[in-house]
Amino acid sequence: MQPYELSIAAAADAIRARKLSPVELVDSVLDRLGQVESYLQAYVTVTAEEARRAAREAERDVAAGHLRGPLHGIPMGLKDLIDVAGVATTASSRVRTGHRAKADSTVAARLAAAGAVLLGKTHTHEFAYGLTTPQTRNAWDRDRVAGGSSGGSAVAVAAGAATFALGTDTGGSIRVPSALNAVVGLKPTYGLVPRHGVTSLSWSLDHVGPITRTVEDAALVLSALAGHDPRDPASLITSGPDYRPGGATELTGLRIGVPRNYYFDHVDPEVEAAVRHATAELESLGAQLVEVEIPMTRYIQATQWGLMVPEATAYHERTVRAVPDLYQADVRILLEAGELMPAGDYLRAQRSRTLMQQAWAHLLEEVDVIAAPTVPVTAVKADDEAITWPDGTVEGVSDAYVRLSAPANITGVPSLSVPVGRDTTGLPIGMQLIGRPLGEPELLRVGHAYEQTRPARPLAAV
Question: For 24-59, what is each residue's pLDDT tens digit?
Fold first, then answer.
C-alpha cells in the first residue's frame, strides 16, 4: 500500500510509530495528485511548495517528540470557499479574480494548529450554488458528474489526491458528492463548526464539515474543528466530546428509523436495495428497525429554496448588479430570480422551518438515528439535465440530488453519508444517517459499526 492510500488514522499511527514521515506522506499524495489532476480537475490551486515546507516542519516536530495529534503532518484539501491567509479564495468564479484572503478562516486556523498540511484549494460549483461542480469529474467515471457543490473535495479524497478535505453543505453539498464518489461526508449540527472566514451561500443553512475515507477519520477531523467562535453568530457554546468511535460494533438497544415515506419515493431500485441491505446489517448488529413517518414532506422543497434563494441573492446583491457577466449563467439566473421573491415568501419559509424543526424533534424522540438514501440516483452523465422516473415524472438533476439531503439543513440536525455499495455499472451508492442535534457521537458510532462489517474500500481506480 502506498502512503497516499492510507486513512488519517492509519497514517497517524505510522507517523507516531516513526514508520512513516510527514514528508513521505505529503510527497506521495502530491505525486498522486499530479497523476490524476489533469483529468479529474479537483483543485483550483495547488500549494505544493508550501505543503512540502509544512511537511518538513512537521517531520522536525515529530522527531523532537512534539506530536500535536492525529492530524499532524496529514495532507488535506480545503474547498475554495474557505479562507487561508495569502491564498486565493476564488469560489470557482471569475467574480473573485485576483482575490487573496487576508486572514485564516476559523477552520483553517484550527487545522493548521492541529498540524494538518494544506495541499491546495478544491473546486466548488460556482459560489456553491449547484449540485454538480461541472468543472470536476467523478472519480469513478469521468463522463459523470462529481456532485456538488463540494465536488473537488470529494473527488480529491476518493482519488488519493488528499487524505481528507473540508467541504460546505447548504442543501447537501458535502453529502451528495461524498455519496457519488464513495467517500464519507459529515454535515455537523448547525453551529457546531464555526463558519467565520467561509464564503456564504445561505447563512441560515450553511455548514462546514469533513470529507474522509472512513467514519473514524471524520471523527478525528471533527474533533479538531468543533468549538465555539464568537465571530460566527450561529456558533454553539458546547463542550465538545472526543468524537472518535470505539472499536465495538454492538448496537443493541439502538433504534434506527426507516422512513416509510419520502426518502424511498422516486429512488432508483438499486439505490433502495443497497440502503435496505445496509439497514439490515445494522439490525444484525443489534439495532432495532422502526418504521417512521417523515413530517411535512410537501413543504421541504419550498422551504429549502424559500430560505436559500433570497439569502444568496442578498449576499451577492452588489456584485451581481455590478458584474453580472462574470457569473456563470445558471448561477446568475438564480441570483437574479432571488430579487423577485417577495419578503412574505421568505418569512413563510422561516415559519415553515420552525414548524419542521419542532416536528423533527418529536420524530427523533421515537428513534435514535434515521437511515435513508443520501441521493436518489447514482452519478448522472455530465450533460444530463433531468431524470425521468418510471411513472413519467421528470425531475431536474439538482432538484433530485438536493431532495433527500435538504431536510437536515432546514432542521439543522447532523447527517453522515457512508458508502454502502455500487450499482451494476460500478457507480457508488451512499446511505445517510440522520441524528438529533449534537448527536454526532451516535451517528459516528453507527456509521463506524456498519463500516466494520464491510471490506476496506479501495480508492477510485482513475
Answer: 999 999 999 999 999 999 999 999 999 999 999 999
Q: Has residue 432 been placed in a domain?
A: no
Residue 167 lies in a domain: yes
Query: Do the Cβ atoms of 400 and 180 come closer than 8 Å?
Result: no
Domain of 365? Answer: 255-401
Question: Is 79 a catalytic site residue?
Answer: yes
**pTM, full prediction:** 0.98
Cβ contacts of 38 within 8 Å, gap of 6 or more? none
Catalytic residue, candidates 93, 149, 150, 178:
149
**Which is catalytic among the residues 7, 28, 79, 92?**
79
Task: Out of 173, 178, 235, 417, pick the active-site residue.
Answer: 173
280 and 318 inside one domain: yes
Nine cell digits for residue 297: 414532506
- Do 210 and 311 sit in the same domain of this protein? no
CB 138 within 8 A of CB 145: yes
Q: How many domains does the chain have?
A: 2
pLDDT in tens, 365-376: 999 999 999 999
For residues 215 and 185, what is the distance between their CA atoms, to the nearest angstrom? 8
Note whether residue 411 is domain-resident.
no
235 is catalytic: no
Rounded to whole angstroms, how far apart are CA atoms 85 and 100?
Answer: 7
